[in-house]
Structures are given as structure tokens and as C-alpha cells.
Amino acid sequence: MPASHAPSVLITGIHTAVGEAVGYEFIRNGWFVMGADELAHTSHFSRAQIRAEIGSLESYRTMIELAAIRGNGLDCVVNCDRVPITDAQGIDFIRAAAEPFLSEMNGAIVNLLGIEAIRTHDLAEISQVTTAVAAMEPRVRINTVAPYLTVEAHGSRLPYAGTDADAFLEHLNAEERATREPLSIYEIAEAVYYFVANPERLSGVTFSADDSLPVWA
């Protein structure tokens, strides 16, 4: 089922909860949504499925080519799952998505990092990577949504060193969380779509757990 005149987006890891939420966000905004992962069946929140080993660069390149054919061009790639963008090989995946298809469309790439990124990366590192890859592909807008990364550990508190139970309870009630509650998958999907469709056409930006999206119509 090819796209007609709608913009097209490829979402890797479409069968994850956040992948489907992202798919729904694009569908409700009139996009032709394609999914990709190791599964053969099409998600309820996409119009086509490409079976691929998305952590393999060769398979990823083939997936991008197929998406450009099925979508009558390719306007956006959302890397939701197991695409090693933050590794040394990450720039090869970015180039595979950008050239030539997204460059021809002045398209967008959004790298969506999962909660496991907390264990292996910090926010400063991810921000540097995002800025660097965006500078290397000036015809493609490249941004990162890292909803679980924050400047400080999520929910960190100053330790209580005393032994008095009442004082400990008072300490727990008085201390505010260092960051907000984690975003829901629907809020994450809205953040992804914002970086694709926002009027300022941002690039090289990392959206973290500390950030709030501007209000725009």
C-alpha cells in the first residue's frame, strides 16, 4: 500500500508501546506511517511493515530503501529501538537514513532513547552526539528525544544520616524530587512529533527529562 500525497515516516521498533504511540501521533496528524522491526505483521498504528534486523547496518540500509519506495519518498525516520546511534557506528546509521532519501526531501531524523540509556550514557554526552551528527548532515534535521535522561539522577535526594524516625519522615516529605515525573509514552510521542513538525525546524537539539516543549499551534 503506497503513500499518496501524505508525508511518510518510518518508525523502527514499531511494536513497542512507545513505538505504537509514536505511530498513532503521526497517523492522527495525517502521515503515512511505516513500521520496521523483526516481526512480519503490521502494527495497528502503521500502514505498512518492513521486516528488518534494525541493529544491522546492512539490514538498516535495505530497510530505508524499501521505506522510500513504499512511501513514495521518505520524509522522516524515527529510531525507536536498538539502532546504535550513540555508538561509534552511529554516524553510519545516520548517513544510511539521510543519504540520499531524507536529504532529497529535506527530511528529519528523531532518535528516541529508551530508559536503558540511563545506565550507559549521560545527558551531556547525548547532547554532544546530537549536535555533532546534525552538523554532519545539514540538509536533514536531526534531534534526540531522551525522556529518561536528566542532568541529575532521576528522583535523587540528599541522604538522611540521622537515626530519628520522625525526622526521617519529615526529610522524605520535605525533599522535592530533583526532576519531574517521567513522561508518559503519549507525551514522548508528542515530543517526537514536535521535532518533526514544529515551525522553527530545529536541529541538533536534545530533549531530556528536564525540558518542557514550547506551546505551538
Unreliable spans are 154-158
Mean pLDDT: 87
How many strand units?
A: 7
**Rg calc:** 19 Å
**Biggest sheet record:** 7 strands, parallel
Q: Report the helical percentage.
A: 25-40%
* Biggest sheet, spatial arrangement of strands: 3-2-1-4-5-6-7
Helix and strand element order? EHEEHEHEHHEHHE
Q: Assign the structural class, choosing from mainly alpha, mainly beta, alpha/beta, alpha+beta, or little secondary structure.
A: alpha/beta
Total number of helices: 7
Principal-axes geometry comes out as globular
> What fraction of the residues are assigned to beta strands by DSSP?
15-25%
- End-to-end separation in angstroms reads 31 Å
Walk me through what this model shows.
- This protein is an alpha/beta fold and about 220 residues long.
- It is about 40% helix and about 15% strand.
- Strands 3-2-1-4-5-6-7 form a seven-stranded parallel β-sheet, sandwiched between helices.
